[in-house]
Design a protein that fits this description.
484 residues, alpha/beta, Rossmann fold, 9-stranded mixed β-sheet, 6-stranded parallel β-sheet, 17 helices, 20 strands, 20% strand, globular
Length: 484
């Protein structure tokens, strides 16, 4: 089965978060279950810098964007053997310092950039005489692809659409509808129309032959008013083609026994190196060695309201009264960056905030922390808690989405458990969960049993790849086609 995965990012060439990790790891897993897989992403500046010997495969593909007749070049490279990554190049849109925008906000032409990208993909396929059985599109940036397939741009190709985060809807205001380039009948309520605007995310949902989300719980949650972001009715009406598939992680990259970023290796069988990693992390960040005596909390996150930043800030004073340390790595909204910088100034003896994203330091935080915080308002899947479990860092999470699917709380009678959950989205509930973790931490034997239980969980992509394959087969059947 030939699969083309289209996305706005893919590790290691272009990554801002979980989407990039997923799109970077899934192809190899699909290859292992017998699929022939290709990827297509925009030719961002940093992607071209990281790509190894990219070769031009076609130039001057004509792409219409509203009244403009534009063109795109296509390059190809490989990160994993046998999996080509096509890069759609138009420097006007993609030769920029960041992928989506700056600290001031997203780029002014975000919709045009990704409409252009989506419209280029069927044309790329035709130019290369590449005939995929299925195109797997991801989030609003490639949602338009599903409508283009429905329009007949690639006859015989089924469309599967993955919702990584329903909160980002790709809204196009009325004055820019011409950029989308679909016939007028697509702009009705049964199509892209969403409260007076057009939603590229909705295009993906409505016109895909199958829709997936990144965890079973999130697939249920988005059918409710609370988490449906206005799409809950639509999603309930099509639940027969909506599937929740839990993301996996790259177990080769995320392995504390072989992680080159860690001060010392350790494993489920031999945890001794974990203490050395904690010691090294405290030294690197200039935190006092007395924090070796209590739990060190870690958090690696985008700093936005969805991630529970307000809860952590509100709970901070009572949290530090528990005699714990905290390390936070992340960037995002300026108000949170300033607030955490101020918190560091007033708690130099137990808190470090490192602004930005630093991959080696992220690994060191997973390796050196005792507890990892993921207090999200909602979390479609979440990879942080999986990395934490793999590294024996006990997660404290809100019981939502993939966090609920992947963390087992001892209170749920699943002994010894792998982490601690709280349900209400407030600072008191977060603090209570941390206090429970702090209490259990003092029982070293039980704590190590939890660590080993978490490190033994299977979060590989093997299971997910088989589930995706089943969905692809359903999509092809729904389309009325057969494998080419």
């Amino acid at each position: 089965m030939r699969i083309l995965i289209a996305a706005s990012e893919a590790a290691p060439l272009a990554k801002t978060g979980g989407l990039g990790d997923v799109v970077g790891a899934l192809p190899s897993a699909l290859q292992e279950v017998g699929c022939e897989v290709s990827l297509v992403i925009p030719a961002y500046r940093n992607a071209l810098e990281k790509a190894e010997a990219p070769a031009v495969v076609t130039k001057g593909i004509p792409v219409k964007l509203g009244p403009r007749n534009l063109s795109a070049d296509v390059l190809v490279t490989e990160v994993n053997p046998g999996i080509p990554i096509y890069l759609v190049r138009r420097d006007e849109f993609f030769d920029r310092s960041e992928i989506y925008g700056t600290a001031e906000g997203e780029y002014f032409d975000s919709r045009e950039r990704f409409i252009f990208f989506s419209r280029s993909i069927p044309l790329l396929c035709r130019a290369l005489r590449y005939d995929p059985d299925v195109i797997l599109a991801n989030d609003w940036q490639t949602g338009l692809l599903m409508a283009l397939l429905h329009e007949g741009t690639l006859p015989g190709t089924a469309g599967v659409f993955t919702i990584h985060n329903l909160g980002y809807q790709g809204l196009v205001p009325p004055e820019h509808i011409s950029f989308i380039g679909l016939p007028n009948e697509y702009y009705r309520m049964e199509g892209l129309e969403f409260y007076g605007q057009m939603s590229l995310l909705k295009a993906g949902i409505v016109f895909a032959h199958a829709v997936t989300t990144v965890s079973p719980t999130y697939a249920e949650e988005i059918q409710t008013h609370e988490f449906g972001c206005g799409f809950d009715g639509l999603l309930r009406s099509m639940k027969d083609r909506l599937f929740g598939i839990l993301n996996g992680i790259d177990e080769k990259e995320w392995d504390p026994a072989k992680d080159v970023h860690l001060h010392a290796p350790y494993s489920r069988q031999d945890l001794s190196g974990k203490k050395q990693c904690k010691n090294a992390l405290l030294k690197e960040l200039g935190l006092p060695m007395r924090l070796m005596n209590g739990p060190l909390l870690g958090m690696v996150s985008r700093l936005v309201s969805q991630k529970g930043c307000e809860l952590l800030l509100e709970a901070a004073e009572k949290l530090f009264a528990l005699d714990v340390g905290l390390v936070l790595l992340g960037s995002g909204e300026v108000k949170y960056e300033k607030a955490f910088s101020g918190l560091q100034d007033s708690h130099q003896d137990r808190f470090r905030f490192i602004k930005g994203f630093d991959e080696p330091l992220a690994h060191k935080i997973y390796g050196g922390s005792d507890i990892m915080l993921v207090p999200s308002l909602y979390e479609p899947c979440g990879l942080t808690q999986m990395y934490a479990l793999r590294y024996g860092s006990i997660p404290v999470v809100r019981a939502t989405g993939g966090l609920n699917d992947t963390v087992q709380d001892p209170k749920e009678r699943r002994f010894p458990g792998t982490g601690f959950k709280f349900r209400d989205f407030d600072a008191g509930s977060l603090l209570a969960a941390i206090e429970r973790a702090n209490t259990v931490y003092k029982d070293k034997d039980y704590w190590q049993a939890m660590m080993r239980e978490g490190m033994g969980q299977d979060f590989s992509w093997r299971k997910a790849a088989k589930q995706y394959l089943e969905v692809f087969e359903r999509a092809i059947k729904r389309m009325g086609g057969v494998h080419k």
